[in-house]
Specification:
The protein is of the alpha+beta class and about 450 residues long. It has three domains: about 40-220, Roll (Lipovitellin-phosvitin complex, beta-sheet shell regions), CATH 2.30.230.10; about 225-310, no CATH class; about 320-450, Glutaredoxin (3-Layer(aba) Sandwich). It is built from eleven helices and 18 strands. The strands form three sheets. An eleven-stranded antiparallel sheet has the order 5-4-3-2-1-11-10-9-8-7-6. Strands 16-15-14-17-18 form a five-stranded mixed sheet. A two-stranded antiparallel ribbon has the order 12-13. A hairpin with a 3-residue loop joins strand 7 and strand 8 (about 165-170). Helix 5 (about 225-255) packs parallel to helix 7 (about 280-310) and helix 8 packs across helix 11 (about 435-450). The longest helix has about 30 residues, at about 225-255. The radius of gyration is 27 Å and the shape is globular. The N and C termini lie far apart (about 100 Å).
Amino acid sequence: MRATRAHLGPVGFAAIVLLLAMIAPPAPAAALPRYSFEPGQRLVYRGAETMTASRSGMGVERETILSVVRRNADDTWRLIVTMTHTRFGGAGDARRVLHRRHDFHIVDLAADGRLRQRGCDHFDGLDRVTPRLPADAAEATRGWSFTSADIGHRCQLVDRTDDAWTIEITPMSAMNELNGFSSTVRTTIDRGRGIIAEIATRYRHRDRETRTALDRLEEEDRIPASELATLAAEIDGFAEATARYESRLARTLLAGRMPAAAATLTETLAEFEAATSGFRSDTLRARARTLITSHHAATPTWTTRLQKQSRIIGQPAPTFALPDLDGTPRDLAAERGRVVVLDFWYRACGWCVRAMPQIESLSARFAGRPVTVLGVNVDRVRDDARLVVDRLGLTYPSVQADGKLAAAYGVRSYPTLAVVDAEGVVRGVHVGYASTLEEDLAAFIETLLGDS
């Protein structure tokens, strides 16, 4: 029998293509974990921390809201991330709120988790809700790492199914490791949608589990269209106004002297109020009110700090000649002609240790220029100081001093950093940890170098 060659024609061919498309298996999901959002999307995560062995009823409840404002020209998403962190104590009818903190972030987030903050709060909780994802297949296989808010994170893709990716994240905090604390985070990402579905965290102290936490996606809705349009139009201006406010405030608290500093605080707030008074977005107006209220609440504390540091700013720096931890003599008088940054710290000060990577980076940043970074450790036991320096791999030197030198510089809390100009005069004092510490100090040092 002779075979007959049939001619299907364009219509018949199209029908077969359509049939094959219907019976073919679906295209595989993306091979790598990636975030995916839509403008107007609002995701609400809620969770709680439970103390493993506590009978006091202490615990923490969290709510995190991701609001997607727009898709940027570089294909990142502009997000507003708000976090409410409430700590409770007691049980039953005796349960009460011990502390409540609100954080507000404006960020640009890429599909692979690369993140840029745009002013507003700088807090390390973002690595929990938007962790970095593997850059390529090799990282997905062998693991990857990223740094957020001075803490390194080691990541591993531990499970992948048709529905989800599971990533295990181990924060590598020198501050915690020195004191025997550790944690592990397991983040589950909805593979089809590209959003986080669940975050499970386990905390340990040495060999004992101390608490657990579980956060889940509980609600999803849409930002009203009118609010979204207004928000998208005004968010850049709000971020810029906030950044100007934060920059001027940081400079005032670093180098301000009373009574002029008090007037500068008032002017800084007035400038922010004027810059944000015309905004129509309910979200941004509410945030502006919160920041203004916080400014008024913090003003008495700032005023007290400025009054105390005014006693040393503008005065000759108390001199000293001490060996560093390697035995090399360090004489402040010999540093005349250079800007000197003195970092007062001790081993058990977690925020001191947390700040040190930024101080190390600051030292490297000004290498080859007339700037000296010197740690001033006040531990009684030399080995405590040596342990921290070795563990963090610090390359800038530290001397060991008693409390008298710290008192001479007006140090009352740690870390405290004093900035001495090329003439040997104290020009600035920074108290406490800040995620913007390096940038704040670098900008100030540049002005001193320009004046010298």
